[in-house]
Amino acid sequence: MARVAREMVEMTGINVDELLELLITNAAAELTTFYYYTILRANLIGLEGEGIKEIAEAARIEDRNHFEALVPRIYELGGKLPDDMNAFHDMSACPPARLPQDITDVKAILQVLVDAERCAVRGYAHICNLTAGKDHRTYALAQAILNEEIEHESWFSEFLGEGPSGHFMRRGETSPFVRPFMPSL
Amino acid sequence: MQTKEVPMREISQEELAACNGIDGAPAWVAYQGLVYDVSSSYHWRQGRHQITNRAGQLYERGLNAAPHGPDLLERFPIVGRLSG
Ligand code: HEM
Ligand SMILES: [Fe+2]
Ligand SMILES: [Fe+2]
Fold first, then answer.
1. Can you give the pTM of this predicted structure?
2. What domains are there in chain A, each with its CATH number?
3. B16, B29, B31, B43: which to mutate for ligand 1, most atoms within 8 A of CB?
4. Which domain holds residue B74?
5. Average pLDDT across chain A, whole number
6. Distances in whole angstroms, Cα of residue A35 to Cα of each of A61, A99, A105
7. Whole-angstrom distance, CA of residue A52 vs CA of residue A45
8. Hey, which bits of chain A come out as E strands?
9. Which helix (H) or strand (E) holds A137?
């Protein structure tokens, strides 16, 4: 734990224990999403599905990156991940992104994907609101993640016919925003 | 937009407070005089929502700066009106 770093956040009036719970439940959402997206991606097949597989994979890898980027901040602030992975799964800030009943229904899979991204967008917007102008490091991290979640939402919603996303899918490296928070990349 | 028919049942503050979502109790939340049943929501497990919000309570002054509008709440069934 970084004692003074935590103290700086406490001094702004932020309830650090509550902030930590938010960071941990959002980290849980990232890791569980990484897992559930693996299954969704595997089922994105055929003429319709294949075209979406690539962005589902980019979103999947970036969510894993989000998990990786959140963990150091959790420990810096004096928090920790639960010992029990089942408990970690169950505390996810967003519900499991499960395969729809009809696994051949690509539109239904897209709906699961866009719902998961919208939950994430709201979650990080909230963390940004809480930390803006106060906890500069958590803010910068949550804002970097938010940038990527918004892109994920717009990719999937474009396929659902909600209008153009306004950008291309990733070319080359993933996580253009979160990369600076992941020195190992 | 409230388009659902509102049951006339009056719900007391005590009844609302008892529906706190903990250990099998239903999870109800009151917003602008109406009581909603969010028991079926993943987001209100054990009556707790996003760390700081609790079931069994009245949200009189809006949704605690939630990153969403009341439309998410209005999808849930209305149990009645909060009395008093
Ligand atoms: C700190 C304040 C709050 C935060 C950070 C928050 C955050 C969220 C998030 C991230 C979602 C998921 C949305 C999605 O999947 O796109 C959600 C859903 C929801 N929230 Fe909140 N919220 C807050 C306050 C409230 C309050 C005060 C109420 C009601 C009194 C409320 C009622 C709901 C409902 C009913 C849903 C939908 C649940 C479902 O569909 O299963 N929220 N909220
Ligand atoms: Fe993510
Ligand atoms: Fe995402």
1. 0.95
2. 13-181 (1.20.1260.10)
3. B43
4. 10-82
5. 96
6. 10, 12, 20
7. 9
8. none
9. helix A136-159
